[in-house]
Amino acid sequence: MSEPDVPRQDLSRLNSVDRISIFVGEKISIVFLISVVFTAYEVIMRYVFNAPTIWVHDSAAALSATGFLLAGTYAMQANRHMRITVVYDIMPKKIQRILDFVQHIFILFFMTLFTYACWKLAVPAVTLMETSAHAWDVPIPAYLKALMVLASGLMLVQAISQLRDDIKKIREVL
Question: How many domains would you assign to the chain?
Answer without folding.
Answer: 1
